[in-house]
Each structure stands twice: as C-alpha cells, then as structure tokens.
From TrEMBL:
It is a multi-pass membrane protein. It comes from the Bacteria. GO terms for cellular component: plasma membrane. The chain crosses the membrane at residues 29-49, 56-78. GO terms for molecular function: sodium:proton antiporter activity. It is found in: Cell membrane. This is Cation:proton antiporter. It comes from Aminithiophilus ramosus. Its main location: membrane. InterPro entries: MrpF/PhaF-like.
Length: 85
C-alpha cells in the first residue's frame, strides 16, 4: 500500500514540477514550488515509514524548514526585485 502512495506522490510531484517550469505567472510558480516541497517532504516521511528508519524523519524536518525559508525568499525577491531591503 505504501508503494502505491509513493508512486502517486511522485506522479503528483512531476505535475507540480511541470507547473513550476511552465507556469504562466510568477506567483503560480511560487505556489507550485511550495506545493512541490510539501509533496517531497511527505514523500521523504513515507520513505522513512517504508524502510523503518527514523533518519528520514530528521531529513524531512530539515527539508521542510529550508523549503519554507526558500518560498519566503522567492516571494520577497519577486515582489521587490532584490533581497537586501
């Protein structure tokens, strides 16, 4: 059952990546990148459950924090055009 969910998440992540690349506007791409990071965090957690290894949970937590900061940086950059203000 976990394998089916993992494949479904990979398919959904591929569609999200397509939206990041092709997205018609910058806000669409930022939202797609945020969604993609959430999907990949969930994927890493499910891999941890699948392999019964708690290290994956630590990696998922670090990835979630970094992806949250990444989305904030992207939003600020595209809103103001620079980051040092």
């Amino acid at each position: 059952m976990t394998d089916i969910v993992l494949w479904g998440l990979l398919l959904t992540a591929a569609l999200g990546f397509w939206r990041v690349v092709v997205g018609p506007t910058i806000p669409d791409r930022i939202v797609a990148a945020d969604t993609l990071s959430t999907l990949l965090t969930t994927f890493i957690v499910l891999l941890g459950l699948r392999f019964r290894n708690a290290v994956f949970l630590d990696i998922a937590l670090a990835f979630a924090v970094l992806s949250f900061a990444d989305v904030l940086i992207m939003a600020k950059y595209f809103e103001h055009g620079e980051l040092h203000r």
